[in-house]
Design brief:
The structure is a single chain. The chain has 10 helices and 2 strands. It has 278 residues and is mostly helical. Helix 1 crosses helix 10.
């Protein structure tokens, strides 16, 4: 696995050094995404592109992989392509019979080939080819999955699930900054419980002012259980990403990955909930 290689430096900083700032940055990114969603798909696409860019500034360094520039460009091209295609499919301009999730596969397939071609363009002797390709493809998957936020917000249930998932991610990072007796498993459990509580509370909160595509997100028919579940899973994902982010790279790279990846990974959760409950 990428982060267990002896050459990948383990960050000496304590959990608070990365987790607490990451929670703050993730909160800002989440608020920007939600406000953009309320303003329309175009602004949401720009917001997602910004979050995807933040992720890719640090991903390869955290993974200790070479070919960072080329790999980041491949992943960014895949992410931007997915943003455009998901938006076009979601509003019916492209492939009316397709679901918004299908463009994810359309993009990731060619991204595999391009990731290998990018290795041929390297001029550094191509050390650690397997690590570099793996890091590029993992970055592309995380970034591309974030595009599903554009599909999630097409229905009120998906938009509400996105809000709950983003809140859960922020809670997970904030909880990870606090030392918990019992170590990482206990901390992850606490993050899930508190994330679920926050998600359930958000599910019954009056959010009528947050309007997405003409529908008030506050008009929730799916109740606290779905909000709690979405937020709990998002909190666990945030804790897992934080563990990866702290294994290598400089502090700025760790912070970028720890803050941006949970925001993007909340999108497929919200999309799944929105599709199931719409």
């Amino acid at each position: 696995m990428l982060w267990h290689d002896a050459r990948v430096r383990t960050s000496p900083a304590g959990p608070t050094a990365v987790a607490l700032p990451a929670a703050g940055v993730a909160l800002v990114l989440a608020l920007v995404a939600l406000l953009a969603a309320a303003a329309g798909d175009l602004l949401l696409a720009f917001a997602l592109a910004a979050v995807q860019g933040v992720l890719l500034t640090g991903w390869h360094r955290v993974c200790g992989a070479g070919g960072a520039a080329g790999g980041a460009l491949v992943a960014l091209a895949a992410a931007l392509g997915a943003d455009g295609l998901v938006a076009a499919v979601a509003d019916g301009r492209l492939a009316p019979r397709a679901t918004p999730a299908e463009p994810v596969l359309w993009v990731l397939g060619p991204a595999v080939l391009v990731a290998f071609l990018a290795q041929l363009a390297r001029r550094d002797g191509r050390p650690d080819v397997v690590r570099s390709v793996t890091a590029t493809l993992a970055a592309a998957v995380v970034a591309v999955l974030g595009a599903l936020a554009l599909g999630a917000v097409q229905v009120p249930e998906g938009a509400a699930a996105l809000a709950s998932g983003l809140l859960g991610a922020v809670v997970g990072l904030a909880v990870a900054a606090v030392p918990v007796p019992g170590g990482a498993p206990a901390g992850a459990g606490l993050a899930a419980v508190l994330g679920a509580g926050a998600g359930a509370a958000l599910a019954v909160a009056p959010l009528d002012r947050l309007v997405v595509d003409g529908d008030a997100v506050g008009a929730l028919g799916w109740g606290p259980a779905a909000g709690a579940g979405c937020a709990a899973v998002a909190a666990l994902l945030a804790v897992a990403v934080l563990q990866l982010a702290r294994t290598g790279g400089d502090r700025a790279s760790s912070l970028a990955v720890a803050a941006a990846a949970p925001v993007l990974l909340a999108a497929p959760l919200a999309y799944a909930v929105g599709r199931a409950l719409a």
